[in-house]
Amino acid sequence: MAEKVIYAMYDDDDVLKDGAKKLVAKGVKISEVFSPFPIHGIDPIIGVKNTRLGIMAFLYGLTGLLLATIGMRFFMVVDWPMNIGGKPNFSYLDNMLAFVPITFEFTVLCAAHGMAITYLLRNKTLPGMPAQNPDPRTTDDKFVMEIRLSENDKFTSEELEGMLKETGLIELDQKEIK
Amino acid sequence: MHKEAAIREPLILGHKTYHDITEDVCRPIEDKAPRMWYILFGIALIIGLYGVGCILYLLGTGIGVWGLNKTIGWAWDITNFVWWVGIGHAGTLISAVLLLFRQKWRMAINRSAEAMTIFAVFMAGLFPLIHMGRLWVGYWTLPLPNQFGSLWVNFNSPLLWDVFAISTYLSVSLVFWYIGLIPDFATIRDRAKKPVAKKMYSILSFGWSGRAKHWNRFELVSLVLAGLATPLVFSVHSIVSFDFATSVIPGWHTTIFPPYFVAGAVFSGFAMVQTLMLIMRKAMGLEAYIHTKHVEYMNIVIMVTGSIVGTAYITELFISWYSGVEYESYAFINRATGPYWWAYWSMMTCNVISPQLMWFRKLRRSLLFTFIISIVVNIGMWFERYVIIVTSIHRDYIPGAWSMHYPSHIDLGVYVGTIGLFFVFFLLFARYFPVLALNEVKTILKSSGESYKNAPDHHDHSEESHSNH
């Protein structure tokens, strides 16, 4: 079903942020903001929750730590204990210090790559994905606010446009998207 | 928004708007390359290909073509390896450590410094690989199940730690760099007019659209990656130093190595960043973004890390005497007064004396002086590794085994070749990639841009800025 969407374009991040604050206070739901760089402080205004990718990074890191520990215990203690000058080679703890560097590296490896892959998948930013910004200028110096009529049944499109025009925008556009 | 003291020098000079930043960074990519680029690229390519030729000859013949002998089993190969890894430390330090410290000046240089890092680590990685002589069995360094019995790699060995450290460092730096590049590729994609360029940047930008949620994730991912990369930077060069420090060779068996190597790595890395940045800002017209203040900040880092390195040299010398171990003291007396005295004193001059000149404000703000010192520092850092490696082993315990190292033309060809390849990569990067984190720079325009800082009625603290003048 086609849906009507209003795109309001601004040429300053602070003007957009102030505008968004006013609109939200009036009960307008802003569904998306497209910007060339992160606008600090916009997330709580338009109701974007903080990402939980940090927790994921921790979990990936923990996985790496565990894998490295299990792996090195198996290789160096269980499967093929090396005789190095007769030093104790039958317990993991006695040999643990030598395994710290690789355990650390592997933890970082898993945390970083796990998080990066999750990030790209969650964003759906992958090689070959089409760009979805409504205007090519939003990656340069323009900032666009997206308002969906279906999410704002309290207002008519004229009312919304009227309110938007008071916020100092530079262009207003209405589109139908699928 | 974060406010900055009015007396602090602006980071972006001139009256730039958001659009100007996009223009300034994208123009060199969209325009035709200047003739100078082709000339430099041609020279770098020829040198690089010569290096590849030398490597192929080496692989076909064996590592006997290097000037090594029974006493000196490690020389230019590992010297070059450590030198390149060291250079490859500045990028991640700039982007990760300085991000954690909220140093905004990093934004002008982090992208190209990271690119430099990645290419330097490529070059570093080549040396252990070709040192195997049989490149095709390089995968034996990985703990893979195999048909040689229950044979695993030795997890007690610092050489294996190195395999993990370098590969982790390289891949994490690459990911960190690329995640930052995605939004900037999107900017180029949205400006591109030619269909091929549009298609290429469209693929490279992964369909980035700049949604609020994506930016939210972007910022967290950058922060966490910086948090992960910071200890990584320190661990990598510590582990490289373990290659020597865990051995029992006098001159190598030193507990001071890890911090001293890390400081040295930052020292040489920043010097390489200076060398490249000073040329790049001029060639690409980025003087408004990378200016004297940035150079000064980097020179201060060079001065501090250079002083740490100098202190380490002197501590090492003192301890070799104070330890009372005659082998240890001989190793150091031999370094300073033996047949390799010239390498030792080149190292001392380049690394200890030259960074101290940065105490003078006039000198550390002079671009020409900085350029010269940056090259001097990297020569000195190469000698440092050469001194540590060759002079420690060339005089064995038995005088009958004493020897000297004479590099062969293949030694030289491989080394110079990596410098050529490094510049091939860097020039390609400068031609096709956004050399400045352009979208990140836009975030500091209002707090650190000259036109905004000096605008009388734009800032809340305009009153106080007047009183300061």
Give the tags.
heterodimer; A: about 180 residues; alpha+beta; four-stranded antiparallel β-sheet; 5 helices; 4 strands; about 50% helix; about 15% strand; rod-shaped; B: about 475 residues; mainly alpha; Formate dehydrogenase/DMSO reductase fold; about 70% helix; about 0% strand; globular; disordered C terminus
Task: State the oligomer.
Answer: heterodimer
Shape of chain B: globular
Largest sheet of chain B: none
Rough outline of chain A? rod-shaped
H/E topology pattern of chain A: EHEHHHEHE
Q: Unreliable runs of chain A, pLDDT <50, ≥5 residues?
A: none
Number of domains of chain A: 1
Cα distance, first to last residue of chain A? 6 Å
β content of chain B, as a range? under 5%
The helix tally of chain A amounts to 5
N-to-C SSE string of chain B, H for helix and E for strand: HHHHHHHHHHHHHHHHHHH
- In helices, the fraction of residues of chain A equals 40-55%
What is the CATH superfamily classification of chain B?
Formate dehydrogenase/DMSO reductase domain
Strand coverage percent of chain A = 5-15%
C-alpha-based Rg of chain B, rounded:
24 Å
CATH fold-level name of chain B: Formate dehydrogenase/DMSO reductase fold
Give the class of chain A from helix and strand content and strand pairing: alpha+beta
Overall CATH class of chain B: Mainly Alpha
* Major sheet attributes of chain A: 4 strands, antiparallel
Give the strand order, joined by hyphens, for the main sheet of chain A: 2-3-1-4
Number of strands of chain A: 4
Short summary:
Chain A has 178 residues and is of the alpha+beta class.
Question: What would you say this structure looks like, in words?
Answer:
- The complex is a heterodimer of chains A (178) and B (469).
- In chain A, strands 2-3-1-4 form a four-stranded antiparallel β-sheet.
- Chain A has 178 residues and is an alpha+beta fold.
- Chain A has one domain.
- Chain A has five helices and four strands, in the order βαβαααβαβ.
- Chain A starts with a strand and ends with a strand.
- Chain B is mostly helical.
- Chain B has a single domain, classed as Formate dehydrogenase/DMSO reductase fold (Up-down Bundle), CATH 1.20.1630.10.
- Chain B is built from 19 helices and no strands.
- In chain B, helix 5 crosses helix 9, helix 8 crosses helix 9 and helix 9 runs antiparallel to helix 10.
- Chain B is globular, with a radius of gyration of 24 Å.
- The C terminus of chain B is likely disordered.
- Classes of the chains: A alpha+beta (178), B mainly alpha (469).
- Chains A and B meet through strand 2, helix 2, helix 3 and helix 4 of A and helix 1, helix 6, helix 7, helix 8 and helix 16 of B.
